[in-house]
Amino acid sequence: MEETTFRSMDVLRFIPSMTLRKLQWADERRFSFPAHKGHLRLYTAWDIAQLAVIQALTIKGVGLHGIRNSLKYFTPAALSKMFSLGQSVLLVYLPRKPEHKRIIKVKFCGPTNWHDLVLNAKQPCVVLDAQDVLDDLVYRGVPAACFKEKPKQRAA
């Protein structure tokens, strides 16, 4: 079965805080890996989910340098696996000193047990419910059936 793809203008409709320049920047800096067909960038639903999670983290104050260092947690395959295991909440642990922009660790957990982890955290952390991010994408027009497909592995 052919994977559903979306163009850059579709991504802007699905993630309103995204701009064409940010999409180009993410592609140039290898934050995302859309398929290319001529000058077109073609994104899968999981690519859009990855961009939406990264955008949500930047809005919450996580630096791009920190996201780059932990990009392996936000790949389409990692997000798909996280949802298949029922773990939709991301806990992003930050360093104690705000001048350090890196992410110490990312932990996936279920929607019920994240509260205790935050209360017992020894360093600052950001909580992001990735299921809310996916629900928002579906609300904005990404077909829900696209998230039932496993993402295909692409050469980086």
Word description of this protein:
By secondary structure, this protein is α+β, with helices and mostly antiparallel strands. The protein has one domain. It has seven helices and five strands. A hairpin with a 2-residue loop joins strand 1 and strand 2. The model has no long low-confidence stretch (mean pLDDT 80).
Q: Give me the count of strands.
A: 5
SSE run: HHEEHHHEEHEH
Lateral arrangement of strands in the main beta sheet? 4-3-5
Total of domains? 1
Low-confidence stretches: none
Mean of residue pLDDT values = 80
Radius of gyration using CA atoms only: 15 Å
- The shape is globular
What is the share of helical residues? 25-40%
Strand content: 5-15%
Structural class: alpha+beta
Task: Describe the secondary-structure layout.
Elements: H1 8-14, H2 20-28, E1 35-37, E2 40-42, H3 45-59, H4 64-69, H5 76-84, E3 89-93, E4 105-109, H6 114-119, E5 125-129, H7 130-139
Helix pairs in contact: 3-5, 3-7
